[in-house]
Automatic annotation (TrEMBL):
Pfam families tied to this protein: ABC_tran
Protein name: Putative ABC transport system ATP-binding protein
GO cellular component: membrane protein complex; plasma membrane
PANTHER family according to UniProt: ABC TRANSPORTER RELATED (PTHR24220:SF685), IMPORT ATP-BINDING PROTEIN (PTHR24220)
Keywords on record: ATP-binding, Nucleotide-binding, Transport
Disordered: annotated span: 1-23
Family matches, as Gene3D superfamilies: P-loop containing nucleotide triphosphate hydrolases
């Protein structure tokens, strides 16, 4: 796979610029705050986050446990209402949408891989994966479903139920389910957390491929500097605030930043998945 040269726009970005003249951001957060709990028990999970995710880009979100990563993803995907601030997704202001409109937008435009996989235990792998399509009233094309299941390495397991799968296999079902409807934006909360190195590499390659060829916008939470190096950019969160960004990340540059955030203990050389494309060039 060839990585687009820095500064070069992807196909989807060019189309967006040429045809509509609209901005290239798929998601834009402005001064987003999320406070959980009441008075004495308040937790400020997000403390005024302003950022954007351009169309066709792959962003990794990193930060210590409890820094607000999952909260950020859920706010950006319209799964959780921020206490204040604005979230624009493809020119829709989420705070102005009612629950029915939000459900439709999430169903049609957004794929979400949850930190806990949220699979339905009574459905098979295939039924779990095709659920978003069937909820939308679409009949899943057999070839398309098989292709996605093969891509995540579950072609042989499609008639099994989640309880019959390993943690990593369940995670791959959740990833297939997020990709099945060809969403414009995919939010993935630690999608490779439960995977072995080889499977993780395959999934990361799949996400990168989706951003490069299909022009999908990928936002992925991860604790792993190697996984983050597959992204175009890394955003760092600390205590609910943005604590920096890194373009063209390498495992080493990410690990160094994380060490400074106190989120990552540097204890020797990093395990390698594969050279990133930048290193191959
Ligand atoms: N429903 C909730 N009610 C109260 N506090 C919450 C709730 N959800 C999250 N929090 C708090 O908000 C803060 C941010 O949580 P969040 O889940 O976004 O962290 P995170 O960065 O995803 O952490 P991790 O890496 O452990 O998944 C934490 O202090 C957490 O305890
Ligand atoms: Mg989390």
């Amino acid at each position: 796979m060839n990585r687009a040269a820095p500064g070069r726009t992807t196909k989807r970005q060019e189309e967006t610029l040429n045809s509509s003249g609209k901005t290239t951001d798929a998601v834009r957060l402005t001064d987003v705050r999320k406070v959980y709990g009441k008075r004495d028990n308040q937790v400020v999970a997000l403390d005024g986050v302003t950022t954007q995710f351009d169309r066709g880009t792959f962003t990794a979100v990193m930060g210590p446990s409890g820094s607000g990563k999952s909260t950020l993803l859920q706010a950006a995907a319209g799964l959780d209402q921020p206490t204040s601030g604005s979230v624009l997704l493809e020119d829709h202001e989420l705070s102005e949408m009612n629950e029915t409109e939000l459900t439709k937008l999430r169903r049609d435009r957004i794929g979400f891989v949850f930190q806990a996989f949220n699979l339905l235990p009574v459905l098979t792998v295939r039924q779990n994966v095709t659920l978003p399509l069937r909820l939308a009233g679409d009949k899943p094309a057999r070839g398309h479903v098989s292709k996605i299941l093969d891509q995540v390495g579950l072609g042989e397991r499609k008639h099994h139920r989640p309880s019959e799968l390993s943690g990593g296999q369940q995670q791959r079902v959740a990833i297939a389910r997020a990709l099945i409807s060809d969403p414009a934006v995919v939010f993935a909360d630690e999608p490779t957390g439960a995977l072995d190195t080889r499977t993780a590499r395959d999934i990361l390659g799949l996400l990168r491929h989706a951003s490069e060829t299909a022009g999908q916008t990928i936002v992925m939470v991860t604790h792993d500097p190697v996984a983050a190096s597959y992204a175009d950019r890394v955003l760092f969160l600390a205590d609910g605030r943005l604590a920096g960004a890194l373009s063209s990340p390498t495992p080493e540059s990410v690990a160094e930043r994380m060490t400074h955030l106190g989120a990552f203990v540097d204890d020797g050389p990093l395990p390698r998945l594969e050279p990133t494309r930048r290193e191959q060039r």
